[in-house]
Design goal:
Length: about 375
């Protein structure tokens, strides 16, 4: 089974090419050519449109009125199918701080069912918590906060059938160094979040093996000229990735630009941190155990703290280009290749390359989503 996609531009990992023809063979990417194919292959014509890798959301809690924490396979499938309308073809279902029992149930459900979802592919689990501290708690429930536990991580990794790919901790907690060493040895990316750590504590965590800063600027000690804090570490340390939520509510575009300029757009990862109200009308929702009000494009718990977002990843791509802080090429990279690299899944998704699953999106030159393809098959049309 072979066909070719014709489009004006193709966003490859290290360059933009086109106009031309991209071969799709048995659900996988083949070669790119500027020459029209000779054989009688079917040509799918996206004249004037752009083809980019399917986006990869490594931090997402819910969508379409369902939450990962519901531990419900039908809800997980609704989220997975909903992701296709966001331009996302691979994602990490993300948990919240909760009771050990509740987390046991969620990771076991995902581990048993991740291959059964019909939409975007589940590439692992992101455990956001419970190993945090209170000062920058955001919408995380402090009653379940604890020191990092290797024993709990082992349990969750077992229950999930090895699907835990990323775990977030506050690096100032007792036992963080040993925990980071263990997780990294098990090929689990360690992220730093919801923390009042100093620059020095964050640096020590990174030197031990932590490699991601979660939703940079949010839920962490800010940048001060005498104590650069977690934000300073996210900007200044080498060989790490910094997540950012570009919805216009979490981070001012100027602050996002400063992060991208200092960190580099090749190691800045756009995430949504989207909760169940994504893709839904404004109103009242839940995030874990907290009631949330969604109004004017933002989700907030009582007291006004942001509670995740309702951002769709395709809109983050469009936002940073419209804000003038990234080119289309950089924006797409931050939402696909950089995201996949941050959790070591770039050998299987996040780029258009020969032999990879043909998961891609079609955009118009205004960066509006036209279509989402998975394994070479059109699964969503705007």
């Amino acid at each position: 089974m072979k066909n070719h996609i014709f489009a004006e531009k193709f966003f490859l990992e290290d360059k933009v090419v086109g106009p031309g023809f991209l071969e799709i063979k048995d659900g996988k990417f083949g070669t790119f050519s500027i020459d029209r194919p000779d054989e009688a292959a079917e040509i799918i014509d996206y004249n004037g449109q752009w083809v980019a890798p399917g986006l990869v959301d490594t931090h997402i809690h819910g969508f379409k009125n369902h939450d990962i924490m519901d531990a419900d396979i039908e809800g997980l499938n609704v989220i997975s199918e909903g992701m296709l309308s966001c331009g996302v073809t691979s994602f990490l279902p993300t948990t919240l701080t909760s009771s050990t029992e509740s987390l046991n149930n969620v990771v076991a459900m995902i581990g048993a069912n991740y291959t059964k979802v019909q939409g975007a592919k589940i590439k692992g689990i992101f455990l956001e918590g419970p190993f945090f501290t209170g000062k920058h708690k955001g919408a995380q429930n402090t009653k379940y906060f604890s020191d990092p536990s290797i024993e709990k991580l082992q349990k969750w990794q077992g229950l999930s059938r090895g699907m835990v790919k990323k775990v977030a901790i506050a690096p100032e907690r007792q036992g963080a160094v040993e925990f980071i060493r263990y997780a990294v040895k098990e090929k689990i990316a360690v992220a730093l979040a919801h923390s009042d750590a100093t620059y020095e504590q964050a640096r020590q965590a990174v030197e031990t093996g932590a490699s991601i800063f979660v939703h940079t600027f949010n839920g962490m000690r800010g940048l001060h000229h005498r104590e650069p804090g977690m934000v300073g570490a996210a900007m200044n340390l080498r060989d790490v990735f910094a997540e950012i939520i570009c919805d216009g509510h979490h981070v001012h575009p100027v602050a996002a630009n400063i992060l991208m300029n200092t960190r580099g757009r090749d190691s800045t990862v756009m995430v949504t941190d989207c909760m169940m109200a994504g893709g839904m009308p404004e109103g009242n929702y839940q995030l874990g155990e907290f009631p949330v009000v969604v109004k004017d494009g933002a989700a907030r718990i009582e007291g006004g703290s942001l509670a995740g977002s309702i951002l769709q990843l395709k809109d983050a791509v469009k936002n940073v280009v419209e804000w003038g802080i990234a080119t289309p090429e950089e924006a797409i990279y931050m939402a696909s290749t950089a995201a996949a690299k941050s959790v070591q899944i770039d050998h299987e998704c996040g780029k258009i390359a020969e032999g990879y699953a043909a998961d891609f999106i079609v955009l118009n030159p205004d960066l509006d989503l036209t279509a989402t393809y998975m394994d070479g098959v059109c699964r969503y049309q705007a």
